Amino acid sequence: MKIQMMHVGELGTNCYLLEDEATRAAAIVDPGGAGDQVLAQARAQGMEVKLILLTHAHFDHTGGVAALHKALPEVPVYLHPADAALLGTQVFPAIGAPTVPYGEGDTLKLGELTLTVLHTPGHTPGGVCLLVGDALFTGDTLFQGSMGRTDFAGGSYEELMASLRRLGRLEGDFHVLPGHMGTTTLEAERRSNYYMQEAMG
């Protein structure tokens, strides 16, 4: 498994290329902009993009979807239905591609890798985290030392606290790959993240 991070879009969102090195199959997680550049980087390294995965539907995580869908119309774009239902509104603009629903407990195959979907609402109603191997893609649910905002339409502080509690209670440690700021580990966040400590307390 190989993971590369790119900063894309006007807010510098963390977009990830997840590759199964055995088969060269790849997923693009949260293409918040520069869809053509993300695809070019994947292709330049010999990857074959099989999945486009959205942790939620805010524009800074979906801005590159339209360009990717134009270039890769056969590649499915996954989004939780609670967010998909809000597409076309001011906070959740249309993304220029149809979406495939995924949610709690679903698994996706990427070559020889298996991704598990965790529904983690609070930042948005359909926010998800994606667990694969020792990596946890957290979108805007969990950040290094912080958490996602809950004051946008559809946000809920109580739900995000429950989602952080759920993540904090996962067994073991994971590399946390958030939608903004730096990467971290789940154990580091258990020890030092005020919001996770509040959620688990």
Q: CATH homologous superfamily name? A: Ribonuclease Z/Hydroxyacylglutathione hydrolase-like
Query: Can you name the CATH architecture?
Result: 4-Layer Sandwich
Overall shape: globular
CATH C-level class is: Alpha Beta
Provide the gyration radius in Å.
16 Å
**Topology order in helix (H) and strand (E) letters:** EEEHEHHEHEEEEEEEHEEHH
End-to-end separation in angstroms reads: 34 Å
Number of strands: 14
CATH topology: Metallo-beta-lactamase, Chain A
Summarize the biggest pleated sheet. 6 strands, mixed
Question: Could you describe the 3D structure shown?
Answer:
With 201 residues, the protein is α/β, with parallel strands linked by helices. It is built from seven helices and 14 strands. It has a six-stranded mixed β-sheet. Strands 7-8-9-10-13-14 form a six-stranded mixed β-sheet. Strands 11-12 form a two-stranded antiparallel sheet. Helix 5 (157-168) packs across helix 7. The radius of gyration is 16 Å and the shape is globular.
Q: Layout of SSEs?
A:
Elements: E1 2-8, E2 13-20, E3 25-29, H1 35-44, E4 48-53, H2 59-62, H3 65-71, E5 77-79, H4 81-84, E6 100-101, E7 107-110, E8 113-119, E9 128-132, E10 135-139, E11 142-143, E12 146-147, H5 157-168, E13 175-178, E14 184-185, H6 186-192, H7 194-200
Parallel strand pairs: 3-4, 4-5, 5-6, 10-13
Antiparallel strand pairs: 1-2, 2-3, 7-8, 8-9, 9-10, 11-12, 13-14
Helix pairs in contact: 5-7
Question: What is the structure about, briefly put?
Answer:
With 201 residues, the protein is α/β, with parallel strands linked by helices. The chain contains seven helices and 14 strands. Strand 1 and strand 2 form a beta hairpin.
